[in-house]
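Go through this fold for my students:
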Amino acid sequence: MIETSGVIEKEQGNGFYLVTLEQPEGHQCLCRAAGKLTKFRIKLLAGDKVLVEISPYDLSRGRITYRERNAGGGRPTTNKNNPKRNNK
């Protein structure tokens, strides 16, 4: 398996994502989320930086194995309204 990083360009529907890879530069492949990402319901959005595994037999298809945290530029999530955490 070839493992490389990339950025999600857009969601194609039916669980597929168009990913632009960093190595080789500009190569695009159609990727699907790996089992652990779907099991734990990790959301994938356009602009997220991800790790992709590609088979050497078909370089146009891949599998997303990891989404980097806060790679989309959004704020980290905090739970300000949780009463259990605010008891001091």
Remarks:
- The radius of gyration is 16 Å.
- The first strand starts at residue 2 and ends at 13.
